[in-house]
Each structure stands twice: as structure tokens, then as C-alpha cells.
Specification:
The protein has 290 residues and is α+β, with helices and mostly antiparallel strands. The chain has ten helices and nine strands. It has one domain. The N and C termini lie far apart (40 Å).
């Protein structure tokens, strides 16, 4: 009997549920995850069953005001419409996150914490260099040896310098081992998974990641077939290890979320081309899309 989309979502939820359950089985847990390249820090600690939450309302208001939904399902952000007051609120939000005792949270709230912080940092970075055509155009330092936007340390969390790559590859992945995290992180690009119009919270992080996975996998920028064969997002090649380690495993992951139109394209595929549109997801002046 074929697995329905609802069934696949349930299966994926079981995966993260099992991970989180193992992390919340004692009064207090922690220790560096046994993963090469893990960035150790206070975030390795957590408090099982903690009721403490983070105030993400400044980011929530920003997303509500400036995330736009294009008719083709791609989410844009109206960078050029952001007011100085809202930019100041974003700065204050990031500052509050940087000093927050993340080790006092349970694992679900920590998951939401890092997803939101990553997306907030991307927004602030683009706003600081606005009128760029792509986040990839941002360089720190002179010449081709200058640091790119993902390896640059953009914030100190509890005194520890952290980059976007640190959050994705050296904190979130070692702790949660959940491939869906990549669907929750937006890199300010048309080809990226969508910037969600609301913040992640511990209560809804699982449902939101499932929804983001379904949306991206079944959108042409995630996976599609054209006259040349199967085309997958470059996301799956950049992070192959997170999606299982090989092409067959990537396809198995995609089948968990693929709907009836995409499934035939995945069956029997032996290879794929990869594509990613790094154009800025800019919706400035398009407020009518709300």
C-alpha cells in the first residue's frame, strides 16, 4: 500500500521525535555530540522538560510585515521596504538572542532558537548590504580571498563567535541529526527553501519543518523532471551527508515527501543534474502580494 503524504509526514515526525526523546530523558543533559567539526559551546547543555521560552516576537512582526508569497509558491522578503525602526528591532532581537541562556532550554526550544537566529542573521546581513543581487556577492575583506557570507562570524552567542555555517553544520546538525533542518533555513535566495512567514517555536518546530519539506521537495526548485531528466536542488549535493550520504539515499529522502506528480520522476532515477538560483529573494515594492 503506498505511503500517503500524511503518512510520510508522520514517519518524519517519528524520526525527530525519537531524536528529541533521547535528548530529554534526564533532568539535565549535554556533552559535545560525537560529530567531527562540532562547535562545542553552552548549547551542548539543555534542561529536559524546561518550560522556559524565548521571546521571538520582534522577528515574528518583521516576518509578518515583509514576507511576501509569490503566485508560484516562492516567498520573497521586501528588504527595501524595511523601516529604520524595524531594522533597529531586528538588531535588538539578535542581541537578546546572543545573550540568552540557551542551555536553560529544552531541546525543542533550542531547535527553534537556532533556526530563528540563523534566519534573522541572514536578514540583517542582506539589509546591511542591500541593493546586492545575491547574498553570494557579499564579501568580507579584499579580493577573491575575502570571507564569504556563510563563514564570516556574525554574532557572539554567550561570548562564542558563530557564523551561519557554524549554526547549520556545526551546531544544528551534530545535535539534531535531522535533515529537515535545511528546509527551515533560508539563504535569501530564490532557490532556497522558503523563509517562513512566522517564527519557529518549540511547540510547532516539528510541524513547520514537515510543511517546509513538503513545500520545497514538491516545488520545481526542489525536484523536477525536464526533457534532460531529473533535476534536483544543489541543496541535496551540498548537504548529501545529511540526506543519507549518497544519491540513492537522497532519492529515498525525497520519496518521503514527494506527491503523486513527483514520485514517478524519482522511480528508477540513476542520476540527476543540480541547479540553484542564488538571485536575491527580493520583494521590495510588491506589498500587493501579501
Amino acid at each position: 500500500m503506498p505511503v500517503t503524504a500524511v503518512g510520510r509526514r508522520g514517519f518524519a515526525r517519528l524520526a525527530i521525535g525519537a531524536v528529541l526523546a533521547t535528548m530529554t530523558g534526564c533532568a539535565r543533559g549535554g556533552g559535545s555530540p560525537d560529530t567531527p567539526g562540532h562547535l562545542a559551546g553552552p548549547w551542548d547543555q539543555f534542561v529536559a522538560g524546561s518550560k522556559r521560552q524565548v521571546d521571538h516576537s520582534p522577528l515574528a512582526l518583521l516576518l509578518e510585515r515583509y514576507v511576501l508569497k509569490r503566485s508560484d509558491g516562492v516567498h520573497l522578503f521586501a528588504y527595501g521596504d524595511v523601516t529604520e525602526a524595524d531594522r533597529a528591532d531586528l538588531d535588538r532581537y539578535i542581541l537578546s538572542m546572543a545573550s540568552f541562556a540557551v542551555d536553560s532550554l529544552d531541546r525543542r526550544e533550542q531547535y527553534a532558537f537556532w533556526l530563528n537566529l540563523y534566519n534573522a542573521l541572514v536578514l540583517r546581513l542582506v539589509l546591511s548590504r542591500y541593493l546586492i543581487l545575491s547574498i553570494k556577492d557579499i564579501r568580507f575583506g579584499l579580493g577573491p580571498l575575502g570571507e564569504g557570507p556563510f563563514e564570516r562570524e556574525l554574532v557572539k552567542v554567550l561570548g562564542r563567535p558563530v557564523s551561519l555555517s557554524d549554526i547549520r553544520e556545526r551546531i544544528l546538525w551534530p545535535i539534531f541529526k535531522d535533515p529537515r533542518l535545511h528546509y527551515g533555513l533560508c539563504d535569501a535566495a530564490i532557490g532556497s527553501p522558503n523563509l517562513q512567514p512566522r517564527v519557529f517555536t518549540g511547540e510547532r518546530v516539528d510541524r513547520m519543518l514537515d510543511g517546509a519539506a513538503l513545500d520545497f521537495v514538491n516545488h520545481p526548485r526542489g525536484a523536477r523532471r525536464d526533457e534532460g531528466g531529473l533535476v534536483l536542488s544543489e541543496l541535496y549535493r551540498r548537504h548529501t551527508a545529511a540526506f543519507g550520504g549518497g544519491f540513492a539515499e537522497v532519492l529515498a529522502h525525497l520519496r518521503l515527501y514527494a506527491d503523486g506528480a513527483l514520485l514517478p520522476a524519482l522511480r528508477g532515477a540513476r542520476s540527476a543534474r543540480y541547479a540553484f538560483d542564488w538571485s536575491l529573494n527580493d520583494g521590495t515594492g510588491l506589498g500587493n502580494l501579501r
